[in-house]
Design goal:
The chain is built from 13 helices and seven strands. The protein has about 350 residues and is α/β, with parallel strands linked by helices. It starts with a helix and ends with a helix. α4 runs antiparallel to α5.
Length: about 350
């Protein structure tokens, strides 16, 4: 990672000194300010980082002041000063040494990179995501960054594990897992417009990570039905965390997913917006064949502004594959039957 970082940061990212006039609303000059901020916070020594992020005299404050006052020449001079500083710190090895000490990314840094990918690929075509039919299983909705990050924490997702998103849309959570956690990350989507935009994000994401000098987990964004996609079936056999945004799924599809989850390994965690196991479902002899007994479920709450389709808070569920209760029940049943003979 260290050698790659030094080589790639020298290859500067070019920005237009003007905001987009298109409907995507991309603000290039604000993007510059945010990029400068996170580079200064994360690529310099502690003393220099403190100096150049000072709330009164740091680069962010100076650039924002120049931007708000319309002082274009001052803005360019400050950028030149910043570029000179970073180039020198790349050349003297400072950036490589600082990055070598970092083993995780702070949330704001991760979100900045993902926002850069999204704004360059999805935002210009975001209206195409509204092209779906209500009342079907194929309704589009996104889990926002804070909720996905919370789900990673609650499941304990690690860099040596496998993450699978069934119905991955434009690939946001797949890319977030690969960047934030560094894990192998899979997604599968069948709607054409989200798939097209996922392809664009999938191309932009590794390039953007290299520009920031970061190593990320392997990503796989696939087209098709996740119920019969062979590559996804193989990934599910190894999966440690599976995400299903089944908020709009009907009973038939949710039942089909339960059967699909029979292949999941013990301890795999399935995160969903609707529970696959009804509350109060208890294991009895008359319902012992119910596949949903393999789930041990935790009901979680999420705060407002965590999903794209509503500002309201809500719930999600973490179902761990745990067949031990079924095994104990079956063993106990066998003992009782033998005793009755």
């Amino acid at each position: 990672m260290t050698e790659q970082t030094a080589a790639l940061i020298v290859t500067c990212q070019r920005f237009y000194l003007a905001d987009s006039i298109e409907s995507d609303g991309y603000k290039s000059m604000e993007d510059i300010v945010e990029t400068v901020k996170y580079v200064c916070e994360n690529y310099l020594t502690e003393s220099e980082s403190k100096r150049y992020t000072d709330p009164d005299s740091g680069f962010e404050r100076r650039l924002t002041r120049a931007l708000n006052s319309g002082a274009r020449d001052d803005y360019v001079k400050i950028i030149d000063e910043y570029n000179t500083l970073i180039s020198s710190r790349v050349s003297d090895g400072t950036v490589a040494k600082v990055l070598a000490t970092k083993h995780s990314l702070q949330p704001g840094w991760t979100k900045r990179i993902l926002d850069q990918v999204y704004s360059r690929t999805v935002s210009p075509h975001v209206d195409s995501l509204k092209d779906y039919k209500n009342g079907t299983d194929n309704v589009y909705g996104e889990l926002l960054y804070p909720l996905a990050s919370e789900m990673f924490r609650e499941t304990g997702l690690r860099s040596d594990q496998v993450f699978v998103d069934l119905g991955s849309g434009v690939g946001n959570v797949v890319l977030q897992a690969a960047l934030e956690i560094g894990c192998e990350s899979w997604g599968c989507e069948m709607m054409k417009n989200p798939c097209d935009l996922a392809d664009l994000q999938g191309e932009e994401f590794p390039q953007r990570a290299r520009l920031w000098g970061l190593s990320v987990g392997a990503t796989h964004l696939l087209r098709g039905d996740f119920l019969d996609n062979k590559a996804i079936s193989a990934a599910l056999l190894r999966a440690d965390v599976v995400l299903v945004n089944n908020q709009a799924f009907g009973p038939q599809l949710n039942d089909a997913l339960v059967h699909r989850f029979l292949d999941l390994k013990e301890g795999c965690q399935v995160v969903s917006l609707k529970s696959f196991k009804p509350e109060g479902l208890e294991l009895h002899e008359r319902n012992a064949a119910d596949l949903r007994h393999m789930f041990r479920v935790r009901k979680m709450e999420y705060f407002s502004n965590r999903v794209s389709w509503t500002d309201a808070p809500g719930n999600y569920y973490i179902a761990t594959i745990d067949r031990s209760a079924i095994v104990r029940f079956e063993n106990g049943l066998k003992k009782r039957r033998r005793a009755a003979e």
